[in-house]
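Two quick folds needed for the group meeting slides. Do the first one here.
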Amino acid sequence: MDLNSLCYLGLGFISIILLIYICLKSDLRSALLTFIGMVGVGYIIEAVIYTFLSSYQYYPHFIKHDPIYDSVWGAIASNALTLPVAATFLASFHKNWLWVAFTIGLYAGIEWLFLELHIYKHYWWRTVYTSLGLPFYFLFAKFLYRKMSVPLKGFYHILFLYLIISPFSGSLHIIPIIFFSNRYYEFGLFANQSKDTIAFSTIFYLCASVVYVFIAKFQPLPRWGKYLVIGLCMYCATLLLRRAGILHSLVWWDTWYYIALSFLSLLFTEYISKSLHKGSLASRI
């Protein structure tokens, strides 16, 4: 394990400790839903600026066989832990703008340090862009936390449900590809096969998450029918992508894993939907 790995692991460990503290000292339900929702926001932002616009690259040195997958793992660590934990901390404890400014300065300092250590690299991105974007990210976390405490219906229910379940389905879609090379996509967005795979995986899970939300909210279908439909949708999508020459499965369990993932994602979507409908215990007393 080298300096690169230690730095990323250290940042991740601190983030996990902070998340545990938040869950112990604040409303557990609202904090966890806000945290996962902010992971979803981070994933969407990274899809645009990192995946499709090639803004920067991470060097955590966890994935030895592929530098693109290694960088993606660094991006997942950043957007699934570090930034959403900080946003949840500020929102859960109702921190003022002095705390927000301090946190932005802290992250700008960490970004500068990672650049100096050559464990992170900018292409067209600049640290000032991070500093200008974080206030909006943290402000949205505060808004999301407030909404988590009341029963949600309509637009906000659908929006927040999507933000919460999309990183769940996205992570479980991409992580096996990174670690086990079970499939790759050949869509033609990028010349590099690994980058093309990550780009299409992103499109796939973002679209699949829309389907999960729609199926979960579609009342005419009985519950067993929803699972039958979502399994058939994933199976048909797999066959179509193979015949189009976009999807290439490399292991026997690839198709069955993603069908099982569709069931698990729909189950998670239904659970989160019910939780959003209920609101926090305090709002019902």
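Then this one, please, same format:
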Amino acid sequence: MKTLLRWLLSMAALCALLMIGPVWILASNQVVTDGHWSTLDRSSAGIAPDPVSNAEAVIQVYSARAYSWRGAFGEHIWIATKQANADSYRLHQVLSWRRPTVVSSIDTPDRSWFGNPPTLLADYRGDLATQMIPQIEAAAANYPQADLYRVWPGPNSNSFIAWVIREVPGFEVALPVTAIGKDYIFNGVFAPAPSGTGYQLSLGGVAGIMLAREEGIEVNLLGLSFGIDVMHPALKLPGVGRLGMPIREPGH
């Protein structure tokens, strides 16, 4: 009985520690939690190159805090692509309210996610982008869980992004520690890190570890991750995200 009690107390203490970051994000009003989704900001952040004046092919990956209180825990990530000489961008993402969940549609690439501004994670242009865009489209079309969405521990919108990244050679993106669901591995427990610079072990997205040059060391417990980046010194905390030097933005 004492052993069981110690185990329960240890688990309660662990859960409390993991929740400190998300609670602080909520308490400090760093995410938009009020207002109907239809009234929240969805305007362009002015990051993406104008497709009319920029003829080259473009691939960009964006991240923004998730909608409402979920933003205290994690982020939503999407991929924007533009073929050479195209006059618009196509966004590839998973939306929880759609079936199938995968949506590839013409849209504004760098718009806010329901009140939360986007951050650019990766930027590929030119010949390499031209080569990868058809592969990204094929990977999105072949996503194995298009009819299933689970906020926790996955598969969710970030599981989809990690899947596409791993399916496309040369497409390397270090996803933020707050991208809950990125550690959900399909058909196994072992996979390359999304950055392509290391590997990760994950048990259904609930527990695991990642060792990679770009991501550093990340430990996933109960779907929330924390760790340390050695190459670009920083702490990585649940809810809070990255504290330290910014990570290198991949692209060519």
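Slide caption for protein two: The helical segments are 2-27, 127-141, 157-167.
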